[in-house]
Design goal:
This protein is α+β, with helices and mostly antiparallel strands. The protein is built from five helices and four strands. The chain has two domains: 64 residues, Glutaredoxin, CATH 3.40.30.10; 52 residues, no CATH class. The protein has a four-stranded mixed beta sheet, with helices on one face.
């Protein structure tokens, strides 16, 4: 099983569900705050791989839902600069296993990558189901 460095928004209900799924599959989850991590552009960029820039962003971030930030109109440099200044813009979770980095929690992709014991049917585990601000989401008991 893998050791997963898991960058989350502390208290996010979906991040909690994702960590529970990883642990149930036998993985060790090392949770870290996406909001307080000291990011550098090159390190952050490595999590996005070949995804289009628009898919690097958390579509539930307040600055995106308000229309202030339009991810589809940004190049890589501008996107990274915005994310470094406002980590709420970063799609989550960011996960790292043995030097491989990924963004988001598509259950099928995570299963192919490191394995999951089970999946939660018909649930988008990336969409924010709570508020859209910087305060921690309520923690859902596992």
């Amino acid at each position: 099983m893998a050791t997963v460095v898991f960058y989350e928004k502390p208290g996010c209900a979906n991040n909690t569900r994702q960590k529970v799924m990883l642990a149930a599959a036998g993985h060790t989850v090392l949770a870290r705050s996406l909001l307080t991590e000291k990011w550098e552009a090159q390190r952050l960029r490595a999590f996005f791989g070949t995804l289009p820039v628009a898919e690097w962003f958390n579509p539930s971030a307040p600055r995106i839902t308000s229309g202030e930030v339009r991810p589809g109109a940004l190049d890589e440099s501008a996107a990274l600069a915005l994310m470094l200044a406002d980590p709420l813009l970063i799609r989550r979770p960011l996960m790292e296993v043995d030097g491989q980095r990924r963004v988001g929690f598509d259950q099928d992709a995570v299963h192919r990558w490191i394995g999951l014991a089970s999946k939660m049917p018909h649930e988008n585990l990336e969409a924010c189901s709570k508020g859209h601000d910087a305060r921690p989401c309520p923690v859902v008991a596992a």
